[in-house]
Write a structure and sequence with these properties.
Blueprint: H1 2-21, E1 61-65, E2 70-77, E3 82-88, E4 102-107, E5 112-118, E6 131-135, E7 146-153, E8 156-163
Antiparallel strand pairs: 1-2, 2-3, 3-6, 4-5, 4-7, 5-6, 7-8
């Protein structure tokens, strides 16, 4: 009986780990409504392989915005105490400029927020940007950051969770 109980607990923990590790990042609900749970990942049966979300085009950490319609890439330069977030399209590579002056970066530990302002890439004009940059003293701490990137595109609020992971060859600056 104990082995059956332990097996059940192990399966429950494994299921919860899979579910939490695959947290959706979708448009934020309006007026208390529920956000969509379709987050645009392709899964293989029997394992937890994603179709993407490796390092982004700027070697940053990727998150979904809007079930895969947009992706946001978090990067940090510890020496400058600066974070940059890049918006890319569903291909997770191509810049996807939006008409916004700012987006919000919320870091979980240590807890702080940074308002990131538009800093358009070369060729982005007419009030659109795919890059947003901000400075905060806590970004100078060399650690793996996790948090939320939120903003608004064409009147629709978006929010995406990200978590940096240590990997071989990663050089914190």
């Amino acid at each position: 009986m104990k082995i059956r109980s332990l097996t059940g607990i192990a399966l429950t923990v494994a299921s919860l780990t899979w579910f939490v590790g695959c947290e959706p990042s979708t448009p934020a609900p309006k007026n208390g409504g529920a956000a969509s749970s379709d987050h645009g990942h392709d899964h293989k049966e029997g394992d937890h392989t994603h179709s993407g979300h490796g390092a982004g085009p700027h070697d940053g950490t990727m998150a979904d915005w809007g079930g895969g319609k947009y992706h946001v890439e978090f990067t940090v330069d510890h020496d400058k105490k600066e974070a940059a977030v890049y918006l890319v399209g569903s291909d997770e590579k191509s810049p996807s400029p939006i008409k916004a002056d700012k987006i919000l970066l919320t870091i979980k530990q240590p807890q702080f927020q940074v308002e990131l302002t538009a800093k358009p890439l070369d060729g982005e004009a007419n009030g659109v940007s795919s890059r947003f940059v901000g400075v905060h003293d806590s970004l100078g701490v060399v650690q793996e950051f996790a948090g939320t990137i939120s903003g608004e595109v064409d009147g629709t609020p978006y929010s995406g969770e990200f978590a940096e992971e240590a990997h071989v060859g990663h050089d914190h600056k």
